[in-house]
Every structure is written in structure tokens, then in C-alpha cells.
Amino acid sequence: HLLSLDARRTVVTRAFSGRAARGVRNRFPDAFENVDAAPFPEQQELTKELRAAAAAQGRTDLMQMWTGQGAALLRELPAAELVRTLASEAGLAAP
Questions:
Q1: pLDDT for the residue 12
Q2: Going by C-beta distance under 8 Å and a sequence separation of 6 or more, which residues neighbour residue 17?
Q3: pLDDT tens for each residue of 37-61
Q4: Is 94 a residue whose pLDDT tops 70?
Q5: Containing structural domain, residue 57
Q6: Residue 76 within a domain
Q7: Which of 28, 43, 81, 91 is the most buried (most CB within 10 A)?
Q8: Is the pTM higher than 0.85?
Q9: Does residue 94 belong to any structural domain of this protein?
């Protein structure tokens, strides 16, 4: 659940795949802060088993959780309300 994480803390990292991508800051990219990751696709292959194990165990401290710069805007919202808001903003609301 992204709201239970500090999703406002994001980082651009190459730690998971060797390609730069923004994700929720956690233990894994922090460990690579002062270490150069291998280039893609080598880094992706090197971390494949660890990433799979982290996902299987629900270890969010080691998982890749990609996010955009708008992560700080996350808020709890029921799905029905989200759909109504999106439809309204797109001009698709029922009359």
C-alpha cells in the first residue's frame, strides 16, 4: 500500500535495472547511493533473483516501486470517487 510508505521520498536510481528510473526510496537503492550499478541489462540480471524474492515475501524495503514526481500528491480515495472525478474533468459526467 503506497500510502503506508513514505512515497514522498523518491529517488532516481539505476540500482534495480541499470537504467535510471524514479521510485520510492527504500533500502535497496540507498545501498547503491555511492556505488555504480552495472549497465542495463547486466544490473537487471544481477538483481533478478533478489527482486523476485522481495516481491514474493512482500519486502517493500527491497522491492522496486516505481513512481513519478507526483508521489507526494497521493491520497486515499475510493475508486468510485476517482472515476467520477476523472469523468467530470474529462467532460464526460452524466447530465
A1: 92
A2: 40, 41, 43, 44, 47, 64
A3: 999 999 999 999 999 999 999 998 8
A4: no
A5: 2-89
A6: yes
A7: 28
A8: no
A9: no
| 23, part of any domain | yes
Cα dihedral 61, 19, 3, 76 in deg (nearest 10): -160
Within a domain: 65: yes
Residue type, 77: L
**Which among 70, 64, 71, 85 is positioned nearest to 19, based on CA atoms?**
64
> How many folded domains does the chain comprise?
1
CA 65 to CA 22: how far, in whole Å? 9
To the nearest whole number, what is the mean pLDDT of the chain? 86
* pLDDT tens figures, 7-35: 668 889 999 999 999 988 899 999 888 88
53/64 Cα distance (integer angstroms): 12
